[in-house]
Write a structure and sequence with these properties.
With 459 residues, the chain is mainly β. Among the domains are: 88 residues, no CATH class; 37 residues, no CATH class; 64 residues, no CATH class. It is built from one helix and 22 strands. The strands form eight sheets. It has a four-stranded mixed β-sheet with strand order 2-3-4-5, with no helix packed on it. A four-stranded antiparallel β-sheet has the order 15-16-17-18, with no helix packed on it. Strands 6-7-8 form a three-stranded antiparallel β-sheet, with no helix packed on it. The longest helix has 11 residues. The relative contact order is 0.07.
């Protein structure tokens, strides 16, 4: 059985009141737990807080938080254990403050002491028998795991390998030998600036500007364009090639010529259809045009046989006007849907059997309402108790909830409960903001509360 929940009195730290002796209080902004002594705020005793430590998990160690003053913010320093330890490790701090620029040193047994920090001055040379393996940060004479800042010139005598992002600010010159940008056609080279020189290939009639499915989009050229040959394919809407007094134009066809090289387009076909098809060719109203299809004259045909009324057009509505009420002395069977458009539907029978699984009320013309009807919806139960009365189970539109009432009155579709009903059940389930769960159960002669929260309030 799910256990009930008991919540302490709670609120923000600045609103913490004087707690009575033994009364707990929890601050929701700083996560502190206090216990009262004598109903005064100064006597409230601090028990603990999540903000002063971090819990360990399956992959991380716990830590102690050193928190700044509350007036300054909620920042802190965490002294944390590593995720894995070889054993129990104890550190013993010095008994006094060290001097300026001193650092803590460990003697190997956990005893910490203040020692002078070593500074590197003048020329320092780092040597190693094995040179750096290009691309391996864990090789060479000097290995720096943190960041490196260099304020002056730097000269690299050997090869330079950079892993990750590189940024050069200022003038950058690459000279001598071959300069490669990328080593595969999947590498992307982006040029954000402008070229200040000519782009000349290393060989004549060898390198392409775009190839295969990877082509340049727009090309703007000004001046002289020289091509040794032009024998490729050109796909374009309009292309003009001129030179030495020769002009060739390939244009879309407007369907006004019989040229074999003319191309029909969507626009030209639409223009042709618009010019050839007139309004009288597509007249379905039967009121204009020659050769139009007149649907009005054949939409409904009365062809009664054997005392029946038949319609020859599928989907048409048949309206029969009767001057008086209609009484049917025998059974009435409706094979299709039955629609009653009057104001009242009354069934005077001993019992009513409905085979439908769902019954809907509140519909408007067979559809869900599209605006607020301002009426209540439900079931009215007529009974007699000294006078005629009505009980009801209904949706109260004014408050937006289901109501169970022993006695109600009705006025233009609005119910008013004068006495609310009593509910007798075997067990109680609630499906609310916490989800669906049982809240009252019974075992033997014991009734139990389940999934219940006892709330001590806020401060």
């Amino acid at each position: 059985m799910p256990a009930p929940v008991i919540q302490f009195k709670r609120g923000v730290l600045t609103n913490l009141p004087g707690l009575r002796a033994g009364e707990p209080g929890f601050t929701t902004d700083s996560y502190d737990l206090y216990v009262g002594i004598d109903s005064t705020t100064s006597a409230n005793k601090f028990v603990g807080s999540n903000r002063f430590w971090t819990r360990n998990t399956g992959t991380t160690g716990s830590g102690v938080n050193l928190v700044e003053g509350t007036d300054n913010g909620s920042n802190y320093i965490t002294l944390a254990s590593p995720a894995r330890l070889a054993g129990i490790v104890t550190y013993y701090f010095p008994d006094s403050q060290g001097s300026a620029n001193q650092v803590l040193s460990n003697d190997g047994s956990g005893n910490l002491s203040w020692v002078n920090k070593s500074d590197l001055g003048g020329i320092t040379t780092f040597t190693a028998v094995v040179d750096n393996e290009l691309g391996n940060v864990d090789s060479g004479a000097v290995q720096i795991d943190g960041g490196l800042g260099i304020a002056s010139n730097t000269t690299v005598g050997g090869n330079l390998h950079v892993i990750g992002y590189s940024e050069f600010v200022g003038v950058v010159t690459f000279k001598g030998g071959a300069i490669g940008l990328g080593d595969a056609d999947t590498d992307t080279i982006t040029v954000g600036g402008e070229f200040g020189s000519s782009l000349i290939p290393t060989d004549d009639d060898t390198h392409n500007l775009g190839s295969g499915a990877k082509r340049w989009k727009n090309v703007t050229l000004s001046g002289i364009v020289t091509a040794a040959s032009f024998n490729g394919n050109v796909t374009t809407n309009s292309l003009t090639v001129s030179g030495a007094g020769v002009t060739a134009i390939l244009d879309e066809d407007g369907l006004t010529s019989d040229r074999a090289d003319a191309l029909a387009t969507q626009q030209s076909i639409k223009a042709y259809v618009d010019a050839q098809v007139t309004a009288q060719d597509l007249d379905f109203a039967g009121d204009s045009g020659t050769g139009a299809v007149d649907l009005d004259s054949q939409s409904l045909t009365i062809a009664g046989t054997a005392n029946e009324i038949e319609t020859s057009a599928s989907g048409q509505t048949l309206t029969v006007g009767l001057p008086n009420n209609v009484t049917i002395g025998n059974n009435l069977t409706v094979s299709g849907n039955l629609f009653v458009n009057g104001s009242t539907t009354q069934v005077n029978t001993t019992s009513l059997t409905v085979e439908d699984a769902l019954i809907e009320v509140g519909m408007v013309d067979g559809s869900a309402p599209s605006s607020d009807l301002n009426i209540d919806l439900g079931l009215l139960l007529n009974y007699y108790d000294g006078s005629a009365k009505k009980a009801a189970v209904y949706w109260d539109e004014s408050v937006g909830r289901i109501v169970l009432a022993n006695e109600v009155s009705e006025n233009t579709g609005v119910l008013t409960a004068s006495e609310y009903g009593t509910l007798e059940i075997g067990s109680l389930f609630l499906n609310d903001c916490a989800g669906s769960s049982q809240v009252i159960s019974c075992t033997g002669s014991t009734r139990s509360l389940e999934n219940i929260t006892i709330d001590a309030g806020t401060f």
